[in-house]
Amino acid sequence: MSIRGVYWVLLIGLSLALLFQWTSEKREESVSEHLLDAQTFKANAEEGYVAIENNELYVLVSVATGNIVETRLKKYPVENVEGSLGYRVFGESKEIAFNYYFKSGFTNTSPNYVIQDVASDYVVLVDEELGLVKKISFGTSSYELSVFDESLTGVEGKIFAGLYRTSGKALDLKRDALDGGMMNNSSYEGVAISSEQDPYNTSRLSRVDEPIEVLSRSGWIAFVQKYFFAALIGSDDYVYNYYVLPKESGIYRMGYTVESSSSSNVAKSHEHRLFVGPKIRKDLMQRADNLELSIDMGWFWFLAQPMVLVMDWINGYINNWGFTIVIFTILIKLLFWPVTAKSFRSMAAMRKITPELNEVKEIYKDDRQKQASETMKLMKKHGANPLGGCLPLLIQMPFFIGFFFALREMVELRHSELGFWSDLSAPDPYFVLPALFCLVMVLTQRLNPQPAGMDPTQAQVMKYMPVMFSVLFIFFPAALCLYTVVNSAVQLAQQTYLYKQQGALNTD
Fold first, then answer.
1. Whole-angstrom Cα distance, residue 213 to residue 308?
2. Which residue of 71, 89, 104, 220 has the fewest C-beta atoms within 10 A of its own C-beta?
3. For residue 28, what pLDDT band results from cuts at 50, 70 and 90?
4. CA 418 to CA 436: how far, in whole Å?
5. CA-closest candidate to residue 318, choices 418, 227, 406, 405
6. What angle do CA 345, 346, 348 make, to 5 degrees?
7. 68-77 and 122-127: which strand pairing?
8. How far apart are CA 405 and CA 424, in angstroms?
9. Helix (H, G, I), strand (E, B), or coil: what is residue 503?
């Protein structure tokens, strides 16, 4: 490496160190602000609000409207520090003009509820003038709320339930690259509907220009985003009109109206199932048909989904997601061993004949056609292929992409620890993994000769490729970096073994 290259590496390293210090200070500030939110949450319960809770959720309800205005996931703190309150799915932030809440009842009514009964895990609200009753309690399983609406006097209007929000962004997820990771927060954010006609139909809210309506028995509608989401789950006993409305007065609206039941044409009461929680695949599969499709697995979802299932099975035994990724990566490399072995043998042959190729290049330096012809003869004679290393790369690329999306969406990795890494879903704060990846790439480059006749400019680009990739990996989630480092290290070991076996390891 030239002196200029060394200077550039040092400059990049110093810049990243300064950025890390700056983001650490930001993280401390965000924790302080967040702990203040905890005080606000408790204070609101005394000023026209009532709070209920179970082992998984804090729920804040507006007494007058009956709206669920805030939910906190107890087991998923915003910050990985002691005292941090849980992540908000529903909530409000005046700083970013954000509001997200749940509303249900009867259309064409404006109730003014008062508390009839309240306990730690439920609240009953009534509007005696309109003859309306609302009970909010926790469902039979975690992260699920039961909202029961009833009309005692036969109020005209359909029963409805809806999600209302002012923005398509998540509330408590970091959005800067150094804290949340490049593309770490760019997973799908929009509305999804599952019906009898279509198991999973999605649309970004910003692209909803006209009302969307889907009539279906059972099904569900949800606003899906990274890690956590809210979903309204329908019952088999009712027909629902699921709807999504264009943005109006700064608010997106999505939900359903109850069109009919199995016992009558017009429902006078209904128990809404409201899921508010993490996107854990095996949990979602048990709640409703196709609800697990809300986890965005990207283009190669058919590869990513079984990967998640295998990793979940492995983690069930070792109970550490970092080691699970390491073991899973090694298993993938063993699976592709026959393909990689064939490719590496071809590359070994290429390495052995490199001196002869250089001689051909020198002898026929003035005759490009003859040079190419003799080069091809020589490679054919020894079974060498300069593109042999591309085949395993092409085969493994869909798996890499699928694994990327799987790791990006796995809430299990959030705040998951491995050694001194406290959060595998965030970038490596110590730059250890990017540095290890750079080292492995350098060793791999030294193991493989540059093709004869490579353009000097291209050769320089290839030379600095490890540094460029390492800088890019600084902004990637630590889990993905861990996978890449282990994958590259195992591949280097496999290649070294085969080169030694083929007698090409010590070839200059």
1. 33
2. 104
3. very low
4. 16
5. 418
6. 60
7. unpaired
8. 14
9. coil
| 478: number of Cβ within 10 Å | 28
Report how far residue 226's alpha carbon sits from residue 465's, in angstroms, rounded to the nearest whole number.
Answer: 31
pTM for the whole structure: 0.79
Q: Where are the alpha helices (DSSP H) in 383-475?
A: 390-409, 432-447, 456-463, 465-473
- Long-range contact set of residues 262-268: C-beta below 8 Å, sequence gap at least 24: 262/237, 262/238, 266/158, 267/158, 267/159, 267/238, 268/150, 268/151, 268/154
Question: What CA–CA distance (Å, rounded) separates 222 from 228?
Answer: 11
* Token representation of residue 297: 């697995």
Identity at 29, one-letter amino acid code? E
Domains in the chain (CATH in brackets) are: 3-296 (2.70.98.90), 306-501 (no CATH)
Distance CA 78, CA 221 (A): 26
Rounded Cα distance between 15 and 6, Å, is 14
Per-residue DSSP letter, 449: P
Token couple for 322 = 């970092």
In 55-129, beta strands by DSSP E? 57-62, 68-77, 86-88, 91-93, 98-106, 114-118, 122-127
Query: What's the rounded Cα separation, in Å, for the pair 247 and 204?
Result: 12
Average pLDDT score over residue span 304-333? 90
With a cut of 80, say whether residue 459 has pLDDT above it. no
What tens digit of pLDDT does each residue of 383-396 get?
A: 566 655 566 667 77
Residue pLDDT, tens place only, 111-169: 999 999 999 999 999 999 999 999 999 987 789 999 999 998 877 788 999 999 987 67
